[in-house]
Amino acid sequence: MKFNDSLVGAGLIVFAGAILWNAWGFPSMPGDQVGPALFPQLIAAGLAICGAIFVIQAARRKADTPWIELPDWIRARRQVAGFAAVTLGLLAYCLLVEALGFFVCAPLLLGALLAVLRVRLWAVPVIAIGVSVLIHFIFYKGLGVPLPWGLLQSWAW
Amino acid sequence: MEHLIQAFELVFEPYVLMVIGASALYGLFVGAIPGLTATMATALLVPVTFFMPPVPAVAAIVTATAMAIFSGDIPGALLRIPGTPASAAYCDEAYAMTRKGQAELVLGAGLVFSVIGGIFGTIVLVTAAPTLANVALNFSSFEYFWLVLLGLTCAIFIASNNVLKAFVSLLIGLLIAAVGMENPAAFPRFSFGEPNLMGGISLIPMMVGLFAVSEVLRYATSIELPLHLAQEKFGNIFKGQWALVRQYPVQTLRGSALGTLIGALPGAGADIAAWMSYAMSKKFSKQPEKFGTGHVEGVIESGAANNSALSGAWIPALVFGIPGDSITAIAIGVLYLKNMNPGPMIFINDPQNIYAVFIVFFLANLLMLPLGVLAIKSFKQVLKVPRAVLMPVILLFCTVGAFAINNSPFDIGVMLAFGVLAFVMEENGFPVAPVILGAVLGRMLEENFVTSLIKADGHFVAFFSRPIAGVLGSVTIAVWVSPLVIRWWRGRVRSVTD
Questions:
Q1: Minimal CA–CA distance to B177: which of B421, B412, B441?
Q2: What residues of B are in contact with residue A3 (Cβ under 8 Å)?
Q3: ipTM confidence score
Q4: Hey, are the CB atoms on A90 and B213 less than 8 Å from each other?
Q5: Do A46 and B167 lie within an 8 Å CB cutoff?
Q6: Measured between alpha carbons, how far is B156 from B165 in angstroms, rounded to an integer?
Q7: What is the number of other CB atoms lying within 10 angstroms of the CB of residue B61?
Q8: How distant is the Cα of A139 from the closest Cα of chain B, in angstroms?
Q9: Is B199 exposed, middle or buried (0-12, 13-18, 19+ CB in 10 A)?
Q10: Can you say how many angstroms the Cα of residue B229 is from the centroid of all Cα atoms in its chain?
Q11: Which of B217, B220, B404 sits opposite A139 (nearest CB)?
Q12: What is the torsional sign of CA B204, B81, B86, B379?
């Protein structure tokens, strides 16, 4: 997704404003002239200046590029599904893993991605479950990472 | 001497050697697969190295990256697709040589001159780092402030063709570093009451997101084209290499030296070193017309440069804690987790660890010779690994790895957010490397800035009053002002000639 330079610039200025507004509430240090707000304020100033330059440059060029240019892949079903599977899949994994457990979420995430990327259908469950077990073994047994059990708590080893 | 013996003992123990061997194979594999970069190899290694003692952890990163930068040459020569961005500069040239039936020669040159460049860079690292560390012992907050600022400045002025966009990337990185209460005032900034953000954004899930999840996203949204190998069977890789070494000594040396230097500059790593060396090689060549038609000279010079850049990047990383490229930025994150904080003190407190790192560098580069041949010969098999299976597996590995650092699902969200950020940024032409530099160096910059401000007590001249600080400060300001001066000067010349 490509954003037009004026939009990028405006976005940066708004973002800088939000930082400044948030940093306004930071306390000042008694006895010191520099508080925790100074550094974020400098960053915000920098972002605002960059944003302004973007807007000015875009105005000078006078090219009418669209506000948002959609990428070519947006029209291809597999690519859109790929993007959605990675982002939504990860989001769901992150929200649900503690409740459902690694052995529910990991094969589902893997399986969804493999299916979207057109791996042969019979291979999808085999790889999804096999790789999940392997990674669980490496991290849980080998490295001692407490991967959540969730629903399968009573089966924990 | 005693420390050196200790260092050898640290490296030559079965566990560390096993780690080196395994990371070497891993690095060769990742580098050889188009779409997987050396930086991604490092990011994926981090969750595993997290559980290792410092020396094997660093050894794994050093070995894997050195191997990946070399093996990126293989698909470049055989498929005309660079395996890592560091091989992109001479990919067409190498492929043209393969088409002329010189696949063995160009792959051999890639291997041999990678090793030479790597060892050259390592020798510079071994000699320069302790000397610089001695100087750095006397540094106060003023010197460190300017040094970090100069490093970040280099990152945006040298490492990018769009200074404005690189600057925005850098500011985003600095802002990331500002989150949480790890600031001189210990006030929780931008944490919005979220307990997971109190300690700041965890660097490792962020890096895994920036460099690995973004690649998976890019793969998922790309159209995969069938790959055609230009040649499948190879004869003796080393045939004719000695003749090349004797024919192009100046090019080898120049590439290695430039590579080390570029590597040592923050923000610019192996890929930029290769591009600059290739251009330099063409400029000084006696036969510049042959470049692009399958001529080995540029491959030699830039092939040496990208591997020497890798070692060069560790000089500022170890001595000042300022990473020379994205790979060392990740490595510094690992060192902090291991309580092996980089900086001049490490050379005094843990010299055996530093020597061990040096030994690993030599070992990794020498190991590249036999393993490199193996990688070339088995490349056909490597290509058979379907990327449609590999990418989802990598994603699950990232997810578990990000979780493992703090055992927190929140970090998976952090990883996802930064993966999407990097993906969108790259689609819009914003470089990602400055983000990571800003995030790693932000706290150091702020701490030294605030300390210096308090010491200066309102007198800005104090920032320049110590000799080294004065020089560093003037250079930094000169780099910032130079584009304006050049523009003004060009304008004047134009108005005079009109």
A1: B441
A2: 428
A3: 0.93
A4: yes
A5: yes
A6: 9
A7: 26
A8: 8
A9: middle
A10: 29
A11: B404
A12: positive
Amino acid at B368: M
With H, G, I as helix, E, B as strand and everything else as coil, classify residue B291. coil
Instruction: Look up tokens 């299916």; give the residue.
Output: A115
Residues whose CB is less than 8 angstroms from the CB of residue B413 and which lie 6 or more positions away in sequence, other chains included: A91, A94
Chain A residues with CB inside 8 Å of B415's CB? 90
What span, in angstroms and rounded, lies between the C-alpha atoms of A107 and A132? 6
Find the CB nearest A143 among B223, B404, B450.
B404
Contact B427 A2 (CB under 8 A): yes
d(Cα B162, Cα B158) in Å, to the nearest integer? 10
One-letter amino acid for residue B36 of the chain: L
**Interface-testing mutation among B399, B457, B487, with chain A (most A C-beta atoms within 10 A):** B399
Closest Cβ opposite residue A46 in set B171, B407, B420:
B171
Of A71, A70, A101, A107, residue with least CA distance to A89 = A107
**Chain A residue closest to B222 (CA)?**
A79
Question: Which residue, B102, B92, B82, is CA-closest to B32?
Answer: B82
d(CA B415, CA A107): 19
Q: What is the pLDDT along chain B (498 residues), one digit of tens a residue?
A: 788 899 999 899 999 999 999 999 999 999 998 878 888 899 899 888 888 898 999 999 999 999 999 999 999 899 888 888 888 889 999 999 998 888 889 999 999 999 999 999 999 999 999 999 998 988 999 999 999 998 898 888 876 678 899 999 999 999 999 998 888 878 888 888 888 888 888 888 999 999 999 999 999 988 777 777 787 788 888 888 898 888 999 999 999 999 999 998 887 788 889 999 999 999 899 988 888 888 999 999 999 999 999 999 999 999 998 888 888 988 888 888 888 888 899 888 888 989 999 999 999 999 999 999 999 988 888 888 888 899 999 999 999 999 988 889 999 999 999 999 999 999 898 988 889 889 989 999 999 998 898 888 878 888 898 988 999 999 999 988 887 888 788 887 777 766
Q: Which residues pair with A68 in a beta bridge?
A: A3
Residues on chain A touching B400 (C-beta within 8 angstroms)? 102, 106, 135, 139, 145, 147
Cα–Cα dist A131/B209, whole Å: 21
CA distance B270 to B303: 10
Residues of chain B with Cβ-Cβ distance to A86 below 8 Å are 213, 216-217, 220, 395, 419
- pTM for the predicted model, two decimal places: 0.89
Interface of B with A in 199-228 (CB under 8 A): 213, 216-217, 219-223
Whether B51 sits inside 8 A of A144 (CB atoms) is yes
